[in-house]
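Quarterly update, task 2.4: arginine-bound model.
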Amino acid sequence: SSNKMWGGRFASGPDAIMEEINASIDFDRKLYAQDIAGSLAHADMLADTGIISADDRDKIVDGLNTILSEIEAGTFEFSRRLEDIHMNIEARLAELIGAAAGRLHTARSRNDQVALDFRLWVSAQLENTETALTRLIGVLLERAEEHADTVMPGFTHLQTAQPVTFGHHCMAYVEMFGRDRSRVRDALTRLDECPLGAAALAGTGFAINRQQTAEALGFSAPTRNSIDTVSDRDFALEFLGLAAICGTHLSRLAEEIVIWSTPQFGFVRLSDAFSTGSSIMPQKKNPDAAELVRAKTGRINGALIALLTVMKGLPLAYSKDMQEDKEQVFDAAETLELALAAMTGMVGDMQISAQAMKAAAGAGYSTATDLADWLVREAGLPFRDAHHVTGKAVALAEEKGCGLADLPLEDIQKINGAITESVFDVLSVDASVASRTSFGGTAPANVREQINWWRGRL
Ligand code: ARG
């Protein structure tokens, strides 16, 4: 049989494969609450503007509320034959209230309807992401405060570079997740326009009130161009884009946790709650949660590329291609939420080995720069010469198999006569870290200042 919603010009129903490729109900049923909210606002506006009667509006409102409770109770029967969430709900409304149901779709198209539903869904998800990020930042701030004085090696090329503190390192991630959170807020600002009333693409001849529906649905204003409104999925792309960037940050931290938790590094010990054992090797404690956070980023990136690829080259206005937006966004949203929660849990209860960090911080001549800086400050050498002298001292220490601070003064003086006993004051990792007082530097006092700055912004 032909379709109830648009069957007028159709003699027969769709092929089974057509139904299979066309139906979106299996995934877009997630939008039921948004769809009903949109219809309620639309029905109210249609009655207030005199386009439908108050009596029909009341029937529609009652029917939609019944449908909402049916869906929430799990008694609603979704049908693939009815394609999507919009037509499933409208068909049920017709069953419940009869002819009045047919008036709901006046001055509306599924094109502005789906743009509205999906915007509302993405907007709610952005709020969730913001909350999850705030939680993660909060946990990182706690760890940073606890370890503002805990010295660890800072790396470049994953080779020991200069001593830093674990607190400072945590705060680097606070900056990243803080930027992610501001990207969420930016996205929410741009998303804040209501599509309802754009209709199919050209707007409508009915005297609708778009301000009213925009306001009823919590938007600041209606969208300005009806063609753009039904063609635009920037809000979904922005969500995926910020999710991919946030995933990248999560993945870098996850990778560091994997490295830090190896017996070779031994910087952190994951809690039992966030690690797994091996079925054959009894000694193993594996950082599976960190590995999975690292890997899940791949899925989010995939979703971003998939939707960018769907949208590129689409002529204006709506094309059915755009139905492919939802699964990507739903999957990425679920993935990001899980990854953020797992990271928050892991960071919150991992144990930090200050001892292992400090031992490693002193290895690899990490205070060589401090020696060079001392030569500049105390002996007046140009930095390039100081660099050269220090290189010689490092080579000597390497030859003797000791650290810079363990070299006898006479030996260093043979490299440069201006060096005195006081050089040893700057060669310890604690002295090195304490000296880095430039704005944004790793000195514990600075890090505490940054922690306070962020606390005021949570
Ligand atoms: N299920 C469709 C989607 O998700 C709804 C819009 C249908 N519009 C249309 N012109 N066929 O995009």
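Highlight for this quarter: The CA atoms of residues 4 and 343 lie 49 Å apart.
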